[in-house]
Design a protein that fits this description.
The complex is a heterodimer. Chain A is built from 11 helices and 4 strands, in the order αααβαβαβαβααααα. Chain A is α+β, with helices and mostly antiparallel strands. A 4-stranded antiparallel beta sheet of chain A has the order 2-3-1-4. Chain B is built from 7 helices and 10 strands. In chain B, β7, α6 and β8 form a beta-alpha-beta unit. In chain B, α3 packs across α4 and α5 runs parallel beside α6. Chain B is globular. Classes of the chains: A alpha+beta, B alpha/beta. At the A-B interface, α1, α2 and α8 of A face α2, α3, α4 and α6 of B.
């Protein structure tokens, strides 16, 4: 028969007399924040994140503005057709221009037709040709007719226009405005992709900074982690503390970065707005764009927390 | 065998490519017993204990803990087993930036205990080890004996089935060593299996009913016959293989 052990001393605390303690809830109580003390703003992490977020905000704003510019320009020129009357003799040029105008106006697919006044043509050419361009006798300049179609200009309706004009204005050349601006659209597209690539690269750089910060924190707290492990702490519990600390760093850095980046975007917007150029004016940011920009620091927080968690878990797996 | 809480069979341990620090170690720990592990410095006591509290895997052999093969235990199951084992280190291993209270509260908070329920048992435990008035003190401001008592309070507040102490009296004076031993004895009376590694023979004489294991150059000997003829006493907790 097994011997019955003597009763515990009377002063033994109740907790020691109860059954084994078990539980798996996240370790995040009062002790969680102080178990692995973080440097916060005195350390480099929030500042690095602030710089990344500020640059990302500028890159994202640039991408969004370029998208607006491209869309506005595309709408402007989609149905635009330019008819040039390339005729050296001024009298014949004028006669063919008027005939072309008269032939185009009644067409069903045409929304509007406008003969560009000579003064406007002179103003357009002035930067390149000087005041001499105003003298049609010395330097023949084609007459220009600006045509707006109801639909986008395409090969078929351009061919129809050419056919209509062939008999009344044989010197007419018909071109879609979108064709002339294609290189500009290509350049804008390239800049948009560049802005997107910048956002991606900054996200990678932010993740790399968080990986370094997390590894450094793990190294600094290696002994405490060992103690926590030996006391039965799980990797998930430890990772949660680190991911929360880095999340707070990212929140602080994100707020600073959004403020700085947002101010830079507003200043740049004002500067470009002051140019008064038609193409650039179409790039003004809307409320939806500002909402997207405001999401940048939140995305940074999520990215930083996920990266920190994965880094910590991967490193803890190397320990027993 | 019924009542066994841990079993080592032909366990060997080597670090890197060096010779084995532990060689063919075999023994069984029975629930509710008080064991002393003795041996000269460098005999392998700490290495053996590290395997017992799952901080080290053996190079070969079989280790069973609470009826489960601990050698092939997946890493994600280790915490559950570690919570059933309390550990007291010679160098205390308290978290230096936490107060005595927060150090002792650590296992409760890790177990997800509500913050409102933490204060009472921690205060009780610190009072039990004689540190009711040092709860807010950081380890650096505590003496060696006080730090060791905080470590003991931390080790037992989670109500472990097995308490492992590695030279717990190594850094304290003889009076404090006796006091600490009384704490271990009280816990053992509650049914906790206690393993204390020491090379202090005076300590062994103070607990004549304890069982002694001896390590000599990495090999286990059995001076009291406890390993060959296991005791009949059973633990009130009833853990067994």
């Amino acid at each position: 028969m097994a011997a019955v052990p003597p009763p515990p001393p009377e002063d033994t605390p109740l907790v020691a007399q109860q059954g084994p303690l078990r539980g798996w809830r996240p370790f995040g109580g009062v002790g969680g924040g102080v178990l692995f003390p973080q440097a916060r703003l005195s350390g480099p992490t929030p500042w690095v994140i602030a710089i990344m977020v500020a640059l990302t905000v500028v890159a994202a704003a640039t991408g969004l503005a370029l998208r607006h510019i491209a869309n506005a320009a595309a709408v402007d020129v989609a149905g635009g057709v330019t008819v040039q009357i390339v005729e050296a003799l001024p009298a014949q040029r004028q006669a063919q221009a008027q005939a072309a105008l008269a032939a185009l106006q009644p067409l069903v697919g045409v929304e509007s037709v406008r003969l560009v006044p000579q003064a406007e043509v002179d103003q357009l050419l002035n930067p390149w040709l000087g005041m001499a361009s105003g003298d049609g006798e010395m330097l023949p300049v084609p007459a220009l007719i600006d045509v707006r179609l109801k639909s986008s200009a395409n090969t078929r309706n351009l061919a129809d226009l050419r056919e209509v004009l062939a008999s009344v204005a044989p010197a007419a050349r018909v071109d879609a405005q979108s064709g002339w601006l294609a290189p500009v659209f290509d350049a804008i597209d390239s800049l948009r992709w560049l802005a997107l690539a910048m956002v991606g690269l900054l996200a990678i750089a932010l993740s790399a900074a968080v990986v370094l910060a997390a590894r450094s924190a793990l190294g600094a707290h290696h002994e405490t982690i060992e103690i926590v492990h030996n006391l039965g702490g799980t990797d998930a519990q430890i990772a949660r503390i680190f991911q929360r600390a880095i999340g707070l760093d990212a929140l602080l850095g994100g707020a600073v970065g959004l403020t700085v980046g947002g101010m830079a975007v507003m200043v740049l917007g004002q500067r470009f707005g002051a140019l008064g150029a038609g193409l650039v004016a179409g790039g003004a940011l809307e409320w939806g764009d500002w909402l997207v920009i405001a999401l940048v620091p939140l995305a940074a927080v999520v990215l930083a927390m996920v990266t920190a968690r994965m880094t910590v878990l991967m490193n803890l797996r190397k320990m027993l | 065998m019924s009542g066994a809480i841990a079993r080592f069979e032909n366990v060997g341990l080597r670090y890197g490519t060096d010779r084995e620090v532990l060689c063919d170690v075999s023994f069984t720990l029975f629930a509710g017993q008080f064991y002393f592990l003795t041996g000269a410095s460098g005999a392998g006591k700490s290495s053996l204990l590290r395997m017992l509290y799952l901080a080290q895997r053996p190079s070969r052999g079989v280790i069973s803990l609470f009826g489960t093969d601990a050698v092939s235990l997946p890493r994600d199951r280790l915490p559950g087993f570690r919570r059933r084992i309390g550990v007291v280190y010679q160098d205390y291993r308290l978290v230096p930036h936490l107060s005595a209270f927060d150090n002792v509260a650590l296992p409760l908070r890790m177990a997800g205990m509500d913050e409102r329920d933490v204060a009472r048992p921690v205060a009780d435990m610190l009072a039990w080890v004689g540190l009711a008035d040092r709860m807010a003190a950081r380890p650096a401001s505590l003496s060696g004996g006080e730090q060791q008592r905080v470590a003991i309070a931390r080790a037992v507040i989670g109500r472990p089935e097995l308490l492992v102490a590695d030279e717990p009296t190594g850094n304290v004076d003889s009076d404090m060593a006796v006091k600490l031993l009384r704490l271990f004895e009280a816990l053992n009376r509650l049914g906790t299996t206690v393993v204390v590694a020491t090379h202090d023979m005076n300590l062994l004489q103070r607990l004549p009913d304890s069982l002694i294991m001896r390590l000599d150059k990495g090999k286990m000997s059995d001076p009291t016959g406890a390993l060959r003829y296991p005791p009949k006493r059973q633990s009130p907790l009833g853990a067994g293989l």
